[in-house]
Task: structure prediction
Amino acid sequence: MADAPPTSELTLGPLGFEHLTAVLDLGHRVYDTDAMPYTGWSLSAVAGHLDAPDSACLVMLDGDRVAGFVLGSLSFEQRADWGYLEWIAVDPAYQGRGAASRLVKECCARLAAAGAVCVVTDVERRNTASAGLMRRNGFTEKATVSLFVRPLVDSADGSARADTGAPRRHLTRAAAERVR
Result:
């Protein structure tokens, strides 16, 4: 979708089925899945959030156009009392207007109303804009996690398998959950 200038005041609303395509498109445009492969999401992973009883999944709209979104869920790892701000993106045409902070604040408010005692999120270390957003909205760094990668070998001499140009399969959040 071409970058169109914002046309009106942005409105915040719940994520609905009608937003799924635009949310996936925006998320895949603004995230570098090579930096952190599990930032790639599938349709089923995003749609699964629509069934949550206490939804903290929101869209920021410019008319009918999705200018940004946030996906939040109640429970993080084994902590049912922690919320998880899982995925947030704002279209570059709308950045600098406070949309991301509005999404973070409303997501956190909804998670708190659903019983969360804190909210956890993760930010790739080179994503300084997102780290700044989280700090401005009350998040503090509590742990650093490194993603370790081991290239697979397929020859007797131990050389790494070459990139064959085959389509890459991205690990979705749902797949990451099954692996844990």
Observations:
- The radius of gyration is 18 Å.
- The beta strands are 11-14, 58-62, 65-76, 79-90, 118-120.
- The first helix runs from residue 20 to 30.
